Amino acid sequence: MNPYKPYREYVKAHLSDERYRHTKNVVEQAGALARRHGADEDVCLRAAWLHDCMKEESLDTLLHWCREFAIINNALARSSRALLHGPAAAAFAREHFGITDARVLDAIFYHTTGRPNMSAEEEIVFLADMTGPERTFAGVEQLRQLCFTDLNRAMAWALQNNLIYLAQRGRPIFEGSVTAYNHYIEGE
């Protein structure tokens, strides 16, 4: 039996067609990056299948799952579906699917914000989420190539791109993403 079938069936039943296609693209890219960089492919694939499983849920639902997993003290995180869906998805993966591997849960949890000292599996899921074929932002082709040659440089580039995108639109920036960016540029 395909070990990922329950995840695939869940996201297919609970996500929009567009979000499901995105998830399949992330799975494909995460698998390719894991093989290229010698990361644990199973960890990457499980996290990729479930990374957005809470993406289309209400803020109340996300907050419920976040309370089950971790205390979210930051007011921005508490009010942002974009920031909460990763931690909520990690909590859901643990409770609904019985996933206890911290590597899988962390890759899901941090796939939108990043953090300093991410594992290769966390970096791969973060980058796979940003580089699927449906992504069309300026420089995405360069980032796709960089992902296959240097995960740390790809993370620095991706985090910088995210921060610029948010700043140019006058949107608040989660301090954890700034900390992650500083970590990755100091490592270059």
Automatic annotation (TrEMBL):
Instruction: Alphabetically list the UniProt keywords.
Output: Hydrolase, Metal-binding, Nucleotide-binding
Q: Which domain of life is it from?
A: Bacteria
Its ancestry begins with: Bacteria, Bacillati, Bacillota, Clostridia, Eubacteriales
* Keyword Nuclease listed: no
Family annotation (InterPro entries) = Diverse_Catalytic_Enzymes, HD_domain, YqeK
Recall the GO molecular function terms of this protein's record: hydrolase activity; metal ion binding; nucleotide binding
Q: What is this protein called?
A: HD domain-containing protein
Domain HD: start-end pairs: 19-129
